[in-house]
């Protein structure tokens, strides 16, 4: 068979490869601590689960509108108004089966041969994968440890040219936990006035996971770019709903119909019961969100202090998400070598920084979406192994 050339350009997400190997080792009897996968270790709050069950009992078994049921889109609009002061018409909201779908839609709309799309590096690997699949040139925005893994607006603006179609921003970020400060967003938006045809995809899936009183700064707060800003968010991380596959995009009015058309052509609609569960998540008590965030904050302190005690490691304190991204250059090993050694020898699953781009060499990603006891045991194993 002769496959389309674009298939050869399609990458993957290495965290799932690490997970698969970890599962193999566990099946063979090994004790594996998984700090590789970016998934909350909490159960979905009960009132959300019950809403899905009730939806099924009430007969919500059929197709829904391609852009999502109206009550859910209205709830998203209300939530954005209450939390961010963002005025969004429900018709601008497109409900999708997971955040990656909004990512795919935006890149499909703007990516083609001859175009350039800028994306964070180290960053979520699917950005680059989809950009290259589209035929566009993937142009990395370097995120540097010295800046807390935030981008420099001046560097981003200097990289824009007449082929630039889309800029992807992710804050709080995967894999680093870095948060872009408002001053850099101010500078970026001001500079973008010179480039009125460049669109922005703002991936804010971790927006509610911020620590130490840090306030999430959103590009949605800038009305001057509202006509070219695509906002990506969802339920997976905030409400421990990764397996439910539920996200949303907020689109400029002229792009929302195109996103809906892409939905019709790909997944038709999001399953009905999950949408009613998402409605319950937004409308119900937020106490579970607050509790999870407090627990993540305590784990963050535990893992950062522990990593910084390991010879050869140094780790800046991330402002958000649930990832630590320590510099491991002092160990004398490459990221991939140390990733494999820690899994095969110590039984600790991590993800090499190079899985997230060229600027990830010299780093590992640790997820602290795991119990404190597991984190402590993993750190002890790593310290003992490297002490040798």
TrEMBL record:
One of its GO terms (biological process) is amino acid metabolic process. It holds the Pfam family Aminotran_1_2. It comes from the Bacteria. Its EC number is 2.6.1.1. It is an enzyme of class 2 (transferase). One of its GO terms (molecular function) is L-aspartate:2-oxoglutarate aminotransferase activity. It catalyses: L-aspartate + 2-oxoglutarate = oxaloacetate + L-glutamate. Its cofactor is pyridoxal 5'-phosphate. The keyword Magnesium does not apply. InterPro entries: Aminotransferase_I/II_large, AspAT/PAT-like, PyrdxlP-dep_Trfase, PyrdxlP-dep_Trfase_major, PyrdxlP-dep_Trfase_small. Residues 31-382 form the Aminotransferase class I/classII large domain. Keywords: Aminotransferase, Pyridoxal phosphate, Transferase. Transmembrane segments: none annotated. The keyword Transferase applies. Belongs to the class-I pyridoxal-phosphate-dependent aminotransferase family. This is aspartate transaminase.
